[in-house]
């Protein structure tokens, strides 16, 4: 059957009015045009849909059946049009974001800010280590990814989002905390707590140290930033951690960054999307939102993703309270523009 949506509309109007002339008037068509379309539909269906007795038009049984189908179809098309309009206006939709564990300290807040602007949107936020994130990227499981290093082997569109610094952290009562500058070779003799294999933080630290001929001795492996941090707080050893993951403890003075030569390791968080995937309107809007730098919600200024402020994100409220050795030269305003 080849019946167009327009023909279904015409038939529905005739069936509703039980009059060719009133249907023609409602649809701004001529009566002969309406009659002709009706004949074509009946030709396609193969049986009469209307019968005229005297001056009155009646629907046949087949006409009633076709009318039901026509209304269902036209209703579905209307719902589709509304859904598409909603998507375009970002009133509805789903966004799946996956981040490595060090980004979990700021991404929920950015999602919160985006969600406040688009309340009808549903989100999922997957937090995993680098190995897990690469697996998800390979499976095309999400719309947007944030990680500390662009992946290899998968075609991706990748934009720098913010600086991401790795520090050697210790308890303030650790002897090296009072030692001033600590030569890199010195930390090789200290017990370290390591993240699990598959962690990008661990890999980045090991790569950085290996290039300088240093291998750390690990006292134990712990499966999350939190566990490593609690281990350092518990006096189990030193650790290399992302600054964002210890911001509260640094601000409170519960942990201190050691002034180890070469540290902090300057990394970058990247916004990553598969290059072979057409981004949804929502994913595009989210990426633009992040890059436009309007997203950081005001907080107490301690846990705020302060690094985001440096890429042009709206300034966070409160003050940054890192110790001098954790501070890097003030980034130039044009930094983000250079990256992009
Ligand atoms: P991870 O994250 O240590 O949780 O893997 C860091 C990164 O993105 O490299």
In the CATH scheme, the class of the largest domain would be Alpha Beta
What is the end-to-end distance?
53 Å
> In total, how many domains does the architecture comprise?
3
CATH superfamily of the largest domain: Periplasmic binding protein-like II
User: Can you give the helix content as a percent range?
Assistant: 40-55%
- Number-wise, the strands total 11
Q: What portion of the residues fall into strands of 2 or more residues?
A: 15-25%
The secondary structure category is alpha/beta
Please, what is the average pLDDT?
85
Quaternary: single chain
Q: What is the helix tally?
A: 13
**Envelope shape:** rod-shaped
Low-confidence stretches: 294-340
Gross CATH architecture of the largest domain: 3-Layer(aba) Sandwich
Kindly report the CATH topology of the largest domain: D-Maltodextrin-Binding Protein, domain 2
Descriptive account of the structure:
Helix 1 (5-17) packs across helix 2 (20-27), helix 1 packs across helix 3 and helix 1 (5-17) packs across helix 4 (61-88). The protein is of the alpha/beta class and 340 residues long. The chain has three domains: 5-65, Winged helix-like DNA-binding domain superfamily/Winged helix DNA-binding domain (Arc Repressor Mutant, subunit A, Orthogonal Bundle); 88-164 and 267-315, D-Maltodextrin-Binding Protein, domain 2 (3-Layer(aba) Sandwich), CATH 3.40.190.10; 166-257, Periplasmic binding protein-like II (D-Maltodextrin-Binding Protein, domain 2, 3-Layer(aba) Sandwich), CATH 3.40.190. The strands form three sheets. Strands 3, 4, 5, 6, 9, 10 and 11 form a seven-stranded mixed β-sheet that branches. It has a two-stranded antiparallel ribbon with strand order 1-2. A two-stranded parallel sheet has the order 7-8. It is built from 13 helices and eleven strands. The two termini are 53 Å apart. It has helices spanning 5-17, 20-27, 31-45, 61-88, 107-117, 130-138, 184-187, 200-210, 225-233, 247-252, 281-292, 306-310, 335-339, and strands spanning 50-53, 56-59, 93-100, 121-128, 144-147, 156-170, 191-195, 217-222, 239-242, 256-257, 265-274. The radius of gyration is 31 Å and the shape is rod-shaped.
């Amino acid at each position: 059957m080849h019946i167009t949506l327009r023909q279904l509309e015409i038939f529905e109007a005739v069936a509703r009015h039980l009059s060719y002339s009133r249907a023609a008037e409602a649809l701004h068509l001529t009566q002969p045009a309406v009659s002709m379309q009706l004949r074509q539909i009946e030709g396609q269906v193969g049986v009469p849909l209307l019968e005229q007795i005297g001056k009155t038009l009646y629907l046949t049984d087949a006409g009633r059946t076709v009318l039901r189908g026509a209304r269902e179809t036209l209703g579905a098309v209307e719902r589709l049009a509304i859904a598409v309009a909603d998507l375009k206006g970002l009133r509805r939709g789903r966004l799946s974001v996956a981040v490595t564990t060090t980004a979990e300290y700021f991404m929920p807040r950015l999602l919160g800010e985006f969600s406040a602007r688009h309340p009808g949107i549903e989100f999922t936020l997957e937090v995993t280590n680098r190995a897990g994130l690469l697996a998800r990227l390979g499976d095309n499981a999400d719309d947007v990814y944030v990680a500390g290093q662009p992946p290899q082997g998968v075609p991706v569109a990748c934009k720098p989002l913010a600086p991401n610094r790795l520090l050697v952290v210790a308890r303030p009562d650790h002897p090296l905390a009072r030692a001033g500058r600590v030569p890199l070779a010195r930390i090789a003799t200290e017990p370290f707590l390591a993240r699990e294999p598959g962690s990008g933080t661990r890999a980045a630290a090991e790569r950085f140290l290996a290039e300088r001929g240093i291998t750390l001795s690990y006292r134990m492996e712990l499966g999350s930033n939190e566990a490593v941090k609690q281990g350092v707080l518990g006096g189990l050893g030193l650790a290399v951690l992302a600054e964002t993951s210890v911001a509260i403890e640094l601000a409170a003075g519960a942990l201190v960054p050691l002034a180890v030569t070469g540290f902090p390791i300057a990394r970058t968080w990247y916004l990553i999307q598969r290059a072979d995937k057409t981004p949804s309107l929502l994913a595009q809007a989210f990426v633009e939102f992040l890059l436009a730098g309007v997203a950081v919600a005001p907080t107490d200024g301690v846990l705020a993703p302060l690094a985001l402020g440096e890429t042009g994100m709206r300034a966070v409220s409160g003050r940054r309270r890192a110790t001098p050795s954790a501070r890097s030269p003030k980034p130039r305003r044009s930094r983000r523009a250079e990256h992009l």
